[in-house]
Design brief:
The complex is a heterodimer. Helix content of chain A is about 40%, strand content about 25%. Chain A is built from 5 helices and 6 strands, in the order βαβαβαβαββα. In chain A, β5 (about 100) and β6 (about 100-105) form a beta hairpin. Chain A is globular and about 35 Å long. The two termini of chain A are about 15 Å apart. A 5-stranded antiparallel beta sheet of chain B has the order 2-1-5-4-3, sandwiched between helices. Chain B is rod-shaped. Chain B starts with a helix and ends in a 5-residue tail after the last strand. The chains are: A alpha/beta, B alpha+beta. The interface of A and B includes residues 20, 88 and 112 of A.
Chain lengths: ~120, ~650
């Protein structure tokens, strides 16, 4: 059974290549959302196993999106990985991927790093 | 001129001695004036006495004359009663007259003339008939029919200057029978003059009523017989009919005192005058002497008073005033120990001297207190200067600190801006990098094995380029966040071991031999271990990169007591180490290619690198320098004399306790 991955990022080029990359292995079903305002609804519709969430986005930042997701009972248990350029790899490494209670990945992250993280957080 | 005299008077009167002398002079002035007045009064009295005495002498002489006239009258009146005379017979009267002439030496001639003036009898017989009818004594005798005093004339019988007296005699009928006459030798008058003790220089003159000089005690031959009326004095005397004295000019032109007394005839008529003349110098010699003596005495008294005032003022007044002046001058010249020290207890000088001494004492005290005050003031100024210097130094330090703080603030603001900019740039760059990296991964997975093989280099190159871009972004972010230190005491040797472990792979790869020489006793140093680790890794990496063909990396730590101060000027937060301070030093040396001298001054500049493109960001040493600065340390970097480079980090050892 494919794991359902929702990627919320305003960068369409990224969501597109990320979707291609993740789906190329036939292990993941990927849904992308470039508009943070409709992210919750998309998540509700898609019901992903994990959400890859950008932080810096127009109209609504990743933190607010996370709050809304967490506020949605059907979505609140879905693990969220922040994939963002606002943190550095060393900071993430120093805190073992957790910053402020959330999981973080520093951009640019290779496909393997991303897949490892998805696998790590969907395992449980 | 007036002004000059006024100033001269002021100058002269400004001297105390002159004033004293003037005082004395004015004090004795009334006495001197009185003395002068008395002198003049005495002279006047003496002069009047002289006048009186002189007049008395004239009167005495006149009295003698009167006596002589009276005697002559008596004689003639007797003769006219004698029959021999009345007979006018020469044989009878001549012997009688001759005898009488012998007995009366007063007379030089005696004779009788008839009513016609023919001489009938004479004590001095004459061979020739003599007629005296022209004589005044004959004429007057006829007129007055009584005894008369005749005029001066040369006796026709005695042939000498003679004053004649005559007395007529009559017959019973009253007819004139003849005139008896007697002639007195004028020399007799001189005898009278000589008999009276006249003052020396007195000229005695006898004149008849007409002013003719009958006798004169001086130069009688010259003057007798001459009419002296031309003499002003004689004129004056004749004009007066009384006795008296007068000052007048004699016939010789000399001003004299004249005393005159009239000679009176038988009827009381004035027949002549006795005039005594004496020069006023001689007449008033005594008076003048008295007056001169008085003047001299006055002058002497005055002079004595002035001299005494002059001399005594020196010892009584001026000496004491000089003491005051001398003391005042000494005080003026700065000798504040000068004192008058009066010997007396009373008096104005003592009061002034005491006042000066007290004033000097007060001045001395005042100056002493002034000096003390000045000394205190100088001390206060010195203290205040030191205090001000300290305050100034404090202010300078505060200013420096403020300047540094301001620079730090500016820098912090700059860094914040840079940080924000870097974060923004990082975000904006890393998003595309994310796309690129993921695309590379996707593409590499999408290739056939053949394609993968042939495009492996391209794929790797793209991946490396992406990583390099990410490394640059990392460096920029590190740079922007390098101020955030988490300071703690940490073992520098342990940190070196860790860093060396991290670069161990590169050491082996480049065949670099490690020479480690650590001071194990070195105390922990206050640092941000991660930042210092970053520094050490950077320096090791540079050293290893410089020894691409192998070499030796020498790493040592040691303590050193500085012989001189060290400071790293030109840095934002300069570390300053003072002479005598013990510091911890980390020294890293390589045997690599070294640094080109022209590049030496730029090695700490941002984005400066000597490495080939792709091998360095140019931010490494810049960040290293910045981190060391933030730690208050000093980094030195240079070429070793034997080749290769060295870098030395100097840290402050925290004080124990």
């Amino acid at each position: 059974m494919k794991k359902k991955v929702l990627i919320i990022d305003d960068e369409e080029a990224f969501t597109e290549i990320a979707k291609l990359t993740l789906e190329s292995g036939d292990r993941y079903e990927v849904c992308v959302e470039n508009n943070p305002l409709t992210a919750v609804q998309t998540a509700r519709n898609f019901m992903p196993d994990i959400i890859i969430l950008d932080v810096v986005m127009p109209d609504m930042d990743g933190g607010e999106v996370r709050n809304q997701l967490m506020a949605t009972p059907v979505l609140k248990n879905i693990p969220i990985i922040f994939l963002t350029a606002i943190v550095q790899e060393k900071d993430v490494a120093k805190n073992h991927g957790v910053i402020g209670g959330s999981f973080f990945l520093a951009k640019p992250a290779s496909a393997n790093v991303l897949i490892d993280a998805i696998e790590k957080h969907t395992r449980s | 001129m007036k002004l000059a005299i006024h100033r001269l008077l002021q100058l002269v009167l400004s001297y105390l001695r002159v004033r004293l002398i003037l005082l004395v002079f004015f004090a004795v002035m009334p006495a001197l004036v009185l003395e002068l007045y008395l002198g003049f009064a005495q002279r006047q009295r003496l002069a009047e006495q002289t006048n009186r005495e002189f007049l008395n002498m004239a009167k005495i002489i006149a009295t003698q004359q009167d006596w002589m006239i009276a005697n002559s009258r008596q004689l003639l009146e007797v003769l006219v009663r004698i029959p021999e005379i009345r007979s006018m017979h020469p044989s009878l009267c001549n012997p009688l007259l001759a005898n009488l002439l012998k007995q009366n030496p007063l007379y030089v001639t005696l004779g009788v003339v008839d009513s016609n003036g023919l001489m009938t009898c004479s004590a001095l017989p004459s061979d020739v008939p003599i007629n005296d009818s022209d004589r005044l004594w004959f004429k007057r005798a006829l007129e007055t029919r009584a005894f008369v005093v005749g005029e001066y004339a040369i006796s026709r019988t005695a042939h000498v200057p003679t004053l004649h007296f005559s007395c007529p005699f009559f017959d019973d009928l009253g007819n004139l029978r003849g005139v008896v006459y007697a002639g007195v030798d004028l020399k007799w008058f001189n005898q009278i003059f000589a008999r009276v003790h006249l003052p020396e220089g007195t000229i005695s003159t006898m004149v008849d009523a007409g002013g003719m000089i009958l006798a004169r005690s001086v130069d009688p031959d010259k003057w007798v017989g001459k009419t002296g009326v031309e003499s002003l004095a004689i004129k004056t005397v004749i004009a007066r009919i009384n006795e008296g004295t007068v000052l007048g000019t004699g016939p010789d032109g000399i001003t004299r005192l004249y005393a005159y007394s009239p000679l009176k005839g038988p009827s009381g008529s004035i027949v002549g005058f006795v005039i005594l003349g004496i020069s006023i110098e001689e007449a008033y010699a005594d008076a003048n002497r008295v007056m001169i003596r008085s003047l001299l005495l006055t002058a002497m008294v005055g002079a004595f008073a002035i001299v005494a005032a002059w001399m005594l003022s020196g010892s009584f007044v001026l000496q004491r005033s000089r003491e005051l002046i001398t003391t005042a001058k000494r005080l003026r010249s700065g000798d504040l120990m000068a004192r008058v020290k009066p010997n007396h207890h009373f008096g104005e000088f003592t009061e002034v001297a005491k006042a000066i001494d007290e004033m000097a004492e007060a001045i001395q005290t005042l100056i002493a207190s002034h000096k003390q005050y000045q000394h205190n003031l100088e001390n206060l100024v010195d203290e205040r200067t030191v205090s001000l210097k300290e305050r100034n130094d404090q202010l300078k330090r505060a200013n420096e600190e403020l300047k540094t703080a301001r620079l730090q603030l500016i820098h912090a603001e700059k860094m914040e801006t840079v940080g924000r900019l870097a974060a923004g740039v990082a975000h904006e760059v890393r998003n595309p990098l994310q796309i690129i990296l993921m695309s590379i991964d996707f593409l590499s997975q999408s290739l056939t094995p053949e394609q993968s093989k042939s495009l492996a280099g391209v794929i790797n190159g793209m991946r490396t380029a992406t990583q390099r871009a990410d490394a640059i972004i990392k460096g920029v972010l590190d740079f922007s966040h390098s101020d955030d230190l988490e300071m703690q005491l940490h073992d520098i040797n342990g940190l070196l071991d860790k860093a060396l472990l991290l670069v161990g792979h590169n050491l082996n790869k480049n065949h670099v031999h490690l020479d480690l020489n650590l001071d194990l006793e070195i105390p922990d140093i206050k640092m941000d271990p991660m930042k210092i680790e970053q520094v050490l890794i950077n320096l090791f990496s540079n050293a290893i990169d410089a020894m691409s063909k192998g070499g030796t990396l020498s790493v040592s730590t040691f303590r050193e007591k500085l012989k001189e101060s060290h400071h790293d000027s030109g840095t934002r937060k300069a570390g300053i180490f003072y002479a005598g301070e013990t510091v911890a030093i980390v020294k890293i040396e390589d045997t690599g290619c070294g640094i080109a001298p022209e590049a030496m001054h730029k090695i700490f500049d941002p984005f400066f690198t000597t490495k080939s493109t792709g091998k360095g960001t140019g931010l490494g040493l810049y960040i290293v320098k910045k981190i060391i600065d933030l730690h208050g340390g000093i980094i030195e970097l240079g070429n070793r004399p034997t080749g290769g480079t060295y870098s030395q980090l100097m840290f402050r050892i925290p004080e124990r306790g």
